[in-house]
Amino acid sequence: MKVLVVGGGGREHAIVMKFAESTKVDALYCAPGNGGIAKYAECFPVKATDLDGIVSLAKQLAVDLVFVAPDDPLVMGMVDALQAEGFQTFGPKKNAAILEGSKVFSKELMQKYHIPTANYQVFQDPKKAVAYLQEAKTYPTVIKADGLALGKGVVIAQNEEEALAAISSIMEDRIFGDSGSQIVIEEFLTGPEVSVLCFTDGKTIQPMVSSMDHKRAYENDIGPNTGGMGTVAPNPYYTPDLAQTCMDTIFLPTIHAMQKEGRPFQGCLYFGLMLTPDGPKVIEYNCRFGDPETQVVLPLLETDLMDIILAIQEEKLDTLTIQWKKACAACVVMASGGYPKKYVTGYPISGLDENGQVNGCFVYHAGTKLDRDQICTSGGRVLGVTAIGSTLKDALHTAFDGVQKISFQDAHYRKDVGQRALKA
Ligand code: AMP
Ligand code: GLY
Fold it and tell me: Quick one: which of 107, 235, 337, 375 has the fewest CB in 10 Å?
């Protein structure tokens, strides 16, 4: 099969490298890709959000499958556009991707189908939101822009001042554009967070190995939120009992709800969960593989990824037993100095071999580009240095060893990735 992967970050590199292992894949393409992906797939400079451009590229390459990895093209309807031209795809259609595309939709779905989540209110009018907050006076409180906001649409306000500032910037200044035409104000939940990515054909749902993200920029979970500074899998807080509870009260009810609403979800459904003292609750749904969760989950997958995708397309996921390595994985993100705020790019990266890798690790490139033969930094998150081990400690040891071998100007990474998991 000829496969086109849409996207160009660490997640897409992990997907491309998994496809490279498949006996069913003969040719791999990626758009736009990056400097590391280019070593494994032919890359084309078409933006992931360019629906027409991707459809044309798929035609030009006569591919057999298009794997749409990022949230924005899925929410925009790229899968629908490709299917309309007869292409096989991986990823939900627009009417199912709304599960991530609208927080109001997802909260209303959970309320209607009794899926556990934080209590919430929806506001279209900033004045009413302010009046509500002045009445409720419970802090911290969580304010979320309805639509996609590059992972920055969630504000945890510690007091009224911060809450009012969030409402004003989201709803009045529209810092996230129309994504801020509505907001959700919700209850602040506590407990360990777990990411569970699941394969689903709309009827059957098969969870992958659980994982734990590290969202804050600096050690000890301080500093601004980022796309994720590292991940480990499995997540030790997610016990088999909790997994069963999540299957019964969250995973199955969600796909059945989507089916009942006439929005069957096919692809990867990502559950962001909080293990609260009252049981697991949904923090967010994502309609795609997580980044950098994918970088620790896919290396543990033993079953051919293409077999899973074909089973999903035929809605026969119930007939497939998906195998996972009995091992642990850790990913340490090396970021540009200053990320997630202002940073400089274009620095040469040293320590990588001719394939952009280091011995013993998978180095997933997130923000790199090839400048002639030199791999250079080109984004905030630059590399996800990932290792597998029989224990989490081993995996972390190897991943940090890999990090030591790589250098670029002002590189920044969290030295405490995995520490919270080791204490579980
Ligand atoms: P998101 O950008 O949707 O991934 O959310 C960012 C982070 O905000 C999550 O990973 C949680 O740590 C936090 N968060 C979101 N909703 C809540 C909530 N209701 N209570 C506590 N923390 C939350
Ligand atoms: N790592 C969080 C996300 O992909 O949204």
Answer: 337
Q: Which residue minimizes the CA distance to atom 5 of ligand 2?
A: 290
- Split the chain (424 residues) into runs of 10 and give each run's mean pLDDT: 98 98 97 96 98 98 98 98 98 98 98 98 96 93 93 90 95 94 96 97 98 96 92 98 98 98 98 98 98 98 98 97 98 97 97 96 97 94 98 98 98 98 94
- For the question of whether the overall pTM of this predicted structure is more than 0.90, the answer is yes
DSSP 89: E
Give the nearest ligand 1 atom to 215 CA: 10
Distances (CA, A) of 110 to 65, 96, 253, 274: 32, 14, 9, 15
- Do residues 376 and 346 make contact, with C-beta atoms less than 8 angstroms apart? yes
Q: What is the pLDDT of residue 129?
A: 96
**What confidence score (pLDDT) does residue 227 get?**
87
The encoded tokens of residue 63 equal 């591919």
What is the structure's pLDDT at 72? 96
CA 140 to centroid of ligand 1, rounded, Å: 12
Hey, which of 291, 298, 364 would you mutate to test ligand 2's pocket, going by the most ligand atoms within 8 Å of its Cβ?
Answer: 291
Q: Which of 298, 151, 367, 330 is nearest to 231 (CA)?
A: 330
Which ligand places an atom closest to the C-alpha of 11? 2
Residue-wise DSSP of 326-355: SSEEEEEEEE-TTTTSS-----B-BS--TT
Do the beta carbons of residue 388 and residue 200 sit within 8 Å?
no
Whether the CB of 193 sits within 6 Å of ligand 2: no
CA of 215 to the centre of ligand 2 (A): 9
Mutate to test the pocket of ligand 2, among 195, 269, 287, 417 (most ligand atoms within 8 A of CB): 195
